[in-house]
């Protein structure tokens, strides 16, 4: 939050996305989240709600669909 970042790009495996998005939202940082966006619909809604409540953009970015984890 104090690193002078303009945004954060979340790109680890999907199981950590919700926690990281919520941390970024709490820090007031715009966030790009790579696919898969969330593990389930509940997590996806929670991530969107966190960004909306913080008033920060949350964007979903493409992945490389031919990489093994995406296949």
Word description of this protein:
This protein has 71 residues and is α/β, with parallel strands linked by helices. It has two helices and three strands; from the N terminus they run βαβαβ. The model has no long low-confidence stretch (mean pLDDT 88). α1 (17-26) packs parallel to α2 (41-54). Helix content is 34%, strand content 15%. It has helices at residues 17-26, 41-54, and strands spanning 8-10, 31-34, 58-61. It starts with 7 loop residues before the first strand and ends in a 10-residue tail after the last strand. It is globular and about 35 Å long. Strands 1-2-3 form a three-stranded parallel β-sheet.
How would you sum up this structure in a few lines?
This protein has 71 residues and is α/β, with parallel strands linked by helices. The protein has helices spanning 17-26, 41-54, and strands spanning 8-10, 31-34, 58-61. The protein has a three-stranded parallel β-sheet with strand order 1-2-3.
Radius of gyration: 12 Å
Quaternary structure classification: single chain
Poorly predicted spans: none
> How many E strands?
3
**Which word captures the global form?**
globular
Mean pLDDT reading: 88
Proportion of helical residues: 25-40%
Strand order of the largest sheet: 1-2-3
Q: Which class best fits the helix and strand makeup? A: alpha/beta
Number of discrete helical segments:
2
Question: What is the distance, rounded to the nearest whole angstrom, between the alpha carbons of the first and last residues?
Answer: 34 Å
**Major sheet characteristics:** 3 strands, parallel
Percent strand: 15-25%
Order of helices and strands: EHEHE
């Amino acid at each position: 939050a104090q690193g002078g970042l303009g945004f954060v790009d979340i790109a680890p495996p999907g199981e950590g996305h919700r926690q990281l998005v919520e941390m970024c939202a709490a820090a007031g940082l715009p966030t790009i989240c790579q696919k898969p966006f969330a593990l389930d619909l509940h997590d996806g809604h929670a991530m969107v709600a966190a960004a909306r409540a913080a008033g920060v953009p949350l964007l979903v970015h493409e992945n490389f669909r031919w990489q093994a984890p995406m296949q």
